[in-house]
Design a protein that fits this description.
- Helix content is about 25%, strand content about 25%.
- By secondary structure, it is an alpha/beta fold.
- The protein has one domain: Nitrilase/N-carbamoyl-D-aminoacid amidohydrolase.
- Strands 1, 2, 3, 4, 5, 6 and 13 form a seven-stranded mixed sheet that branches. The chain has a six-stranded mixed sheet with strand order 7-8-9-10-11-12, with helices on one face.
- α1 packs parallel to α2.
- The termini are far apart.
- About 45% of the residues are buried.
- The model has no long low-confidence stretch (mean pLDDT about 95).
């Protein structure tokens, strides 16, 4: 089963002009719809807002765009908790084409407080959540994560074990010296979970180094360090075949990743307390 994902790595508007990202998002969504994409994926906290108090809520508008252009939209925003305390969840949202349904993932790691306080673009008191939902779509099961949670393999593994076939992992800003490690981990999460991993980041000028990628377990389907718009075709049928298979002596002849590593052939949950003994 093949489908297309539009991966957006924009030159984003930073606060106080971040509200302009809404109209920029619409341009990309309309183009993705014309090109037949099933999903359009934006970076972390795009289209915003980036700061508390939040001066706009993009969710209703993005839901309207999803219905208007008949597409799933993965985007980022913050969810205010307490205006006076300036607390908020950092959130990845997926708007469905029915214009009524939204999937929400609130960042869980690290525990906080963290870098969002007093940042150059972010400024809110980050509050960690503790749920790991997986979402059904007509195309397949979707898991949502965020940015440096790629360094926490437990999250992507948990989502994959619950059935997520596509992991959207929108990222924040220029990775600087972490770039190579970050790139490696994106593909690693795809390999070890037999999933498609999708990421991009905000760029605030063409001098920034982006990191947009669509990685499958057997290959990196697309990557770019430049700003822009790209449509990438993926094959969920191949993901399902690899997950349903069993590793054997001859598997490496036909498979570029280990088959069946989410199955009972490889999984030994009875040992998990041995991995991390509890007091």
């Amino acid at each position: 089963m093949s489908l297309s994902i539009a991966v957006i790595q924009p030159i984003s508007f930073a606060p106080p002009d971040d509200y302009q990202n809404l109209s920029l998002a619409r341009e990309y969504i309309e183009k993705a719809s014309r090109d037949g994409a099933a999903f359009v994926a934006f970076p972390e906290t795009f289209p915003g807002p980036w700061r508390m108090p939040a001066h706009y809520d993009p969710i209703p508008q993005m839901m309207e765009y999803a219905a208007q252009f008949n597409i799933h939209i993965v985007f980022g925003t913050i969810e205010p908790i307490d205006i006076h305390a300036q607390t908020a969840h950092n959130m990845v949202v997926m708007a469905y084409p029915d214009g009524k349904t939204v999937a929400k993932y609130r960042r869980t790691h690290p525990s906080g407080p963290w870098i969002y306080t007093g940042g150059q673009v972010w400024d809110f008191q980050y509050t960690a959540a503790d749920e790991f939902p997986v979402f059904d779509t007509v195309h397949g099961k979707v898991g949502l994560m965020m940015c440096s949670e790629v360094f926490m393999p437990e999250i992507s593994r948990g989502l994959a074990l619950r059935g997520a076939e596509i992991l959207f992992m929108p990222a924040g800003v220029d990775k600087r010296k972490l770039w190579a490690a970050w790139r490696n981990l994106m593909w690693s999460r795809a390999i070890e979970n037999l999933a498609v991993v999708v990421t991009s980041q905000n760029m605030f000028s063409h001098e920034d180094r982006g990191l947009a990628m669509v990685a499958g377990p057997e290959d990196i389907h697309f990557e770019s360090s430049n700003s822009g718009y790209n449509v990438v075709e993926i094959n969920l049928g191949r993901i399902r075949t690899l997950r349903a298979g069993r590793d054997s002596l001859t598997s490496s002849i036909n498979c570029g990743a280990k088959e069946g590593i989410l199955s009972e052939q490889w999984q030994r949950p009875e040992l998990y307390d041995q991995f991390y003994p509890r007091s």
